[in-house]
Design brief:
The complex is a heterodimer of chains A (about 270) and B (about 475).
Chain A: E1 24-37, E2 40-53, E3 57-61, H1 68-76, E4 83-88, E5 91-92, H2 98-107, E6 109-113, H3 124-134, H4 139-152, H5 168-180, E7 186-190, H6 198-214, E8 218-223, H7 226-232, E9 235-240, E10 243-249, H8 253-262
Parallel strand pairs in A: 3-8, 3-9, 6-7, 7-8
Antiparallel strand pairs in A: 1-2, 1-4, 4-5, 9-10
Helix pairs in contact in A: 3-4, 3-5, 4-5, 5-6
Chain B: H1 3-16, H2 18-56, E1 61-66, H3 92-99, E2 104-109, E3 112-119, E4 122-131, E5 145-146, E6 156-160, H4 161-167, H5 181-188, E7 192-202, E8 222-224, E9 228-243, E10 258-261, H6 262-268, E11 291-296, H7 302-311, E12 314-317, H8 320-362, H9 364-372, H10 377-420, H11 433-460, H12 463-468
Parallel strand pairs in B: 4-10, 6-9
Antiparallel strand pairs in B: 1-11, 1-12, 2-11, 3-4, 3-7, 5-9, 6-10, 7-9, 8-9
Helix pairs in contact in B: 1-10, 2-8, 2-10, 2-11, 8-9, 8-11, 10-11
Classes of the chains: A alpha/beta (about 270), B alpha+beta (about 475).
The complex binds adenosine-5'-diphosphate (ADP) and magnesium ion.
Adenosine-5'-diphosphate binds near residues 35, 62, 66, 68 and 70 of chain A.
Chain lengths: ~270, ~475
């Protein structure tokens, strides 16, 4: 499953965008999402152009209201751009039908949110199985697959509990298991640790990194915590007032230290 | 999403707010129950009416006449028939032939004649008719005082109430309550009545006196014609029953007031008034009838049997057309009852709309989550339809049971009332299987229609807005 390759560790020195060695998974071109509020127009996303390649772990950084979530929702196919294009795995989401967008959300992306967004009336395992119902996967196979996903996030023991009976960290684990159940290429996380204490947040982030490195998922994570991004992301994209104001490779000591300690060799071109 | 998943999710959603959904479902049940109750009343009344008519023997009888007889029924249909002289004779052979037709239960000649009966040596002039054995089970003799004939050739008579009054020398006083049949039967049952009749005999056998088949017959007078002779005879009959109702009211002036068993009458070879017109035809030793009545198993088959008999060369008549207007009446009645019944269901369907719209507001976030993890508009729509449909089917089933129960209770109550009035019980409430199926299906369809708007609204919900909403 992993696409990890063993290569000598090397300090990145080139801008990731210029590299073409790896397939482009996400490409946004002059992406805009404007909200019309009576007379005024709110430019939540205003002409963003960016590119994310397969297997990357990208952090979307910016202050509150800068348009991070809006960008993420456009990539997720939850929302449509007002203008511009967002191409995910070769398909321009702006041109897809509602039905095709739903299929994109089902098969291509997995999402986790700050507020977990589990269905409160369902047990953990039912929540994890839910995307498989929409994907019309054989009823016989679902239980085993859900258990496997829960095992991966270490939540097997609590699978019959309702979300309200779980801690925040456990709920986010359940949400992560649900996000990867249909084996998507892309993991989109909107402030996944925003509601968690720092210790639990680290646990969740380690899981996200594991998905990125062992399952080869491309990760785009929204956060406003610079420290968190420095520790886990390979690249930072900065937003302010809906505009892209920076795109840089993570060269911080924290990132180097963290990756070295975990003993994982990060793929670089 | 597949059906098992849809149902599973729908049921769990319905259970999430049990009280509200139960109330909505009860609303549907009441609607269905009222529809079922109304329609089963209509159907029951219709069945009761046709049962009555069936018993009366009007609707399962075809009267067959020979085309030789110019005074037959339905002469307007005779346009292309062969001229009377060449058409077929309605004799015993023809009768047996008709009897062999499918769905024909009985073919019997129409024997009725005016004559004089002696009671306590006083003569009374009246019409006498022969009754087939099957008449025993008709409504007309349901309230008979005494009993029906003991066998098919018994020397017995059933008399009509009015004739009983005449025999006893009472005259019904107009404006006053009619005399009770029981009161009249008391002094008459078991008494003897002497029937005077004219016997037909083949001319060659006339001198040998073949009247030995009934010992009480006596020969008074001989009337001879070219083909047969007529002998005047007498027969003693025992009065066994007094009929309250007038079983022949529809026959108007030719209605009979004294009835004898058909087989007995046939054996007597009674000279009938119509025979005079048949002199030329009556040469053979076979009985020839001016008309025979054909009893049909199922009134629905009457049309086919009539056609078959017409093909044999006879004229037919039935009261089929009368049933058509009756059916029309009940169709209109059912329509009105159905509309009234549906009204409650329409109100209930508004309840479904309300419940589902509330559910959308409550489950806004949940719908947003489902869409975020890949549910399509269609999935969300189907889910709401499934919930509406489940409430519809459940409400339909409960409603049918409820409607049936209401019907049973009303039936029971009415019969208790009828019993107090010393009237026979009636079954005027019928819930046929098709109504059960149709009512549940109707509830299902109405519920789906009610789910149309909420499901569409839920499907169109913007997931970003729904997830933003805390
Ligand atoms: N539905 C909406 N209507 C109007 N304004 C909106 C809507 N959604 C988002 N916005 C605005 O767009 C801007 C960007 O929002 P968002 O992407 O949620 O920011 P972030 O996630 O970076 O905090 C904010 O100013 C917000 O108020
Ligand atoms: Mg946000």
């Amino acid at each position: 499953m992993g696409t990890l390759q063993n290569q000598p560790t090397e300090m990145p020195s080139t801008n990731a965008i210029t590299s073409t060695a790896k397939a482009e998974v996400i490409r946004a071109e002059q992406l805009c999402r404007h909200y019309r509020m009576g007379e005024t127009v709110i430019r939540a996303v205003d002409g963003v152009t960016l590119s994310v390649r397969a297997g990357e772990f990208v952090a979307l950084l910016g202050s509150s209201g800068s348009g991070k979530s809006s960008v993420l929702n456009l990539i997720a196919g939850l929302d449509r751009p007002t203008s511009g294009s967002v191409i995910v795995q070769g398909r321009d989401l702006a041109k897809l039908s509602r039905e095709e967008l739903a299929h994109h959300r089902l098969r291509t992306v997995g999402m986790v949110f700050q507020s977990f967004n589990l269905i409160v009336s369902m047990s953990v395992i039912e929540n994890v199985e839910l995307p498989m119902r929409f994907a019309e996967i054989d009823r016989g196979k679902r239980d085993a697959m859900a258990r496997e996903a829960l095992a991966r996030v270490g939540l097997q023991a609590r699978m019959n509990h309702k979300p309200s009976e779980l801690s925040g960290g456990e709920q986010q684990r359940a949400a992560l298991a649900r996000a990867l159940i249909n084996r998507p290429q892309l993991l989109l996380a909107d402030e996944p640790t925003g509601n968690l204490d720092s210790h639990t947040g680290v646990e969740i982030m380690n899981l996200v990194r594991e998905f990125n490195q062992h399952l080869g998922m491309t990760v785009v994570m929204v956060t406003h915590e610079r420290a968190l991004a420095e520790r886990y992301a390979q690249r930072f994209i900065f937003l302010a007032d809906g505009k892209l104001v920076g795109d840089e490779v993570n060269s911080s000591a924290a990132f180097k230290e963290a990756t070295d300690r975990v003993g994982i060799e990060v793929e670089r071109e | 999403m597949k059906l098992p998943d849809l149902t599973e999710l729908a049921v769990r959603n319905l259970r999430e707010s049990v009280l509200r959904n139960s109330l909505t479902t009860i609303g549907i049940s009441v609607g269905v129950a009222s529809l079922v109750a109304m329609l089963s009343l209509g159907i029951g009344l219709q069945q009761m009416a046709s049962r009555r008519l069936m018993k009366s023997g009007l609707f399962d009888t075809v009267v067959v006449t020979s085309r030789r007889d110019l005074r037959n029924f339905g002469h307007e249909e005779n346009g292309n028939a062969p001229p009377p002289g060449e058409s077929k004779l309605l004799d015993e052979d023809a009768r047996l032939e008709i009897e062999k037709l499918p769905n024909v239960t009985e073919v019997y000649p129409d024997i009725r004649f005016p004559t004089t009966l002696l009671y306590e040596d006083k003569p009374h002039l009246t019409m006498v008719a022969a009754l087939p054995w099957s008449a025993k089970s008709t409504d007309a003799f349901e309230t008979l005082q005494g009993q029906f004939f003991s066998n098919e050739t018994a020397h017995e008579a059933v008399i009509q109430k009015a004739f009983a009054e005449e025999l006893l020398g009472r005259t019904p006083k107009p404006g006053l309550d009619e005399t009770n049949a029981r009161e009249l039967a008391g002094p008459l049952l078991g008494k003897e009545l002497t029937l005077r009749y004219a016997q037909r005999e083949a001319a060659t056998a006339a001198s040998n006196n073949t009247a030995s088949n009934n010992g009480s017959a006596s020969q008074d007078e001989n009337l001879t014609s070219a083909a047969y002779s007529v002998v005047s005879r007498e027969l003693k009959l025992k009065i066994v029953g007094v009929s309250d109702l007038d079983p022949e009211s529809m026959r108007g002036p030719t209605r009979a007031r004294v009835f004898v068993p058909l087989k007995l009458a046939e054996n007597l070879h009674i000279m009938l008034p119509t025979d005079l017109r048949e002199i030329s035809a009556a040469a053979g030793d076979q009985a020839v009838y001016s008309s025979v009545s054909v009893r049909v198993q199922d009134p629905a088959k009457i049309r086919g049997i009539e056609d078959a008999i017409k093909k044999m060369g006879f004229n037919t008549f039935s009261i089929l057309d009368a049933t058509r207007s009756l059916q029309q009446f009940f169709a209109v009645l059912d329509l009105f009852l159905g509309i009234f019944g549906s009204l409650a269901l329409a109100v209930a369907s508004i309840g479904i709309v309300n419940t589902l719209v509330m559910a959308i507001l409550e489950r806004r976030r949940e719908i947003g989550i489902m869409k975020a993890i890949g549910a399509s508009d269609g999935d969300v729509k189907k889910l709401f339809f499934a919930e509406a449909g489940a409430m519809g089917i459940l409400g339909g089933i409960v409603g049918v049971v409820l409607g049936w129960a209401i019907g049973q209770v009303i039936n029971l109550g009415t019969n208790v009332y009828l019993k107090r009035q010393s009237l026979p019980p009636e079954h005027f409430w019928a819930v046929p299987v098709w109504l059960v199926g149709a009512a549940i299906l109707f509830a299902f369809i109405v519920s789906l229609a009610a789910g149309l708007y909420p499901a569409g609204r839920a499907a169109r919900l913007d997931p970003v807005q729904a997830l933003r909403y805390e």
